[in-house]
Amino acid sequence: MYSTTYHRVSSVDEAVKLLGDCDEAALLSGGQTLLPTMKARLAAPSDLIDLGRIDALKGISVDGRSVKIGAGTTHAEIHASKEIAAVCPGLHEMTGVLGDPAVRHMGTLGGSLANNDPAADYPAAILALDATIHTSKREIEAGQFLVGLFETALEDDEIITAVSFEAPERSGYEKFRNPASRYAMCGVFVAKSAETVRVGVTGAGGDGAFRWEAAEEALAQRFEASALEGLSLDPSEMLGDLHGSPEYRANLVRVMAKRALAKA
């Protein structure tokens, strides 16, 4: 790796100040993407700001169906939460199949969202849960937060502090995993509340995670897998690579949605 200056901070304010003072600083949360990228010499931040010791970024709060999760909370901690399992089984399920044990015990909610990998699991969840992203500056709706591949609405000196949402009545998540990386070639999160159904899709869209609105409308009328029969997605809007063609992924979305519904 190239030379970098390491900073261990104890508060969000301290981290924000360093971001403003340093030329090309990078934030380190779980480090599951940043550190391998630095080792491969694809990133060379002048300063590395470690958020791992900021207690204010950690923890899970569940009050009735209102949920708030600190950005520094690991995937394993979310999966282990009995409160999350009780009010949002879909999120509990998702965090149990995310990456591998090492990733789940080191990677964090905020780090994953800030990176916004097109094959990451959380983007589908925050869209389906209609979540709010809390930052050091403001609150951002999930649909406005996710901008494109590896791109979010975060400003250069802005840090994710927490994610909040109202737990749905029913939820489920299913993904088709890349056999090597375990990333989602297609992941679908389904959430049903009293008045709406939301379907978030990750790993398949050419522009990143998206809501499958046609499925939402059909499931609002009949919340069962048969409601998805006859629905299709435009392959021209799907991702195509050596792991699967756009047509293959378009079909995967419907298959994974049916499986997510079965869990919900």
Automatic annotation (TrEMBL):
Keywords: FAD, Flavoprotein, Oxidoreductase. The keyword Flavoprotein applies. InterPro entries: CO_DH_flav_C, CO_DH_flav_C_dom_sf, Diverse_Substr_Oxidored, FAD-bd_PCMH, FAD-bd_PCMH-like_sf, FAD-bd_PCMH_sub1, FAD-bd_PCMH_sub2, Mopterin_DH_FAD-bd. SUPFAM superfamilies: CO dehydrogenase flavoprotein C-terminal domain-like, FAD-binding/transporter-associated domain-like. GO terms for molecular function: FAD binding; oxidoreductase activity. It comes from the Bacteria. Residues 1-170 form the FAD-binding PCMH-type domain. SMART domains: CO_deh_flav_C. PANTHER family: XANTHINE DEHYDROGENASE SUBUNIT C-RELATED. This is Xanthine dehydrogenase family protein subunit M. It comes from Pararhizobium mangrovi.
